[in-house]
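Pilot study result, target chain (109 residues):
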Amino acid sequence: MANHKDKSEETRSASPVIMTRHHNVSYLRQYPDYIAAPLLILEGQWLAVAGFAIGTRVDIQVMEGCLVITAGEPELTEPAVPVPAHRLPGCERKRSDEDKRETIGEYVA
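Predicted structure:
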């Protein structure tokens, strides 16, 4: 059976193109009793295209069998993207010429 997670279909109407995404509800075991709770993860560049940029506040209306997610105004002027520790000032690892030659040798070999 095909995995529907990555499939999308476009529907043309009087309004701009609408994209339908197919996902599965998974579960998460929550501490302290580890009872399974439903989990739905939405991720991908399609969110930004739909107006959900990083830092955007969302309103979620909950109805029986239906979630309506509406984008508000972004709170952040710049996205709060975590910086890997090795990229922080003062954390750079100085590589010797020998290290560089070994690394290049691994890719060439």
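One observation from the pilot: DSSP finds two helices and six strands in the chain. A full batch analysis is planned for the follow-on phase.
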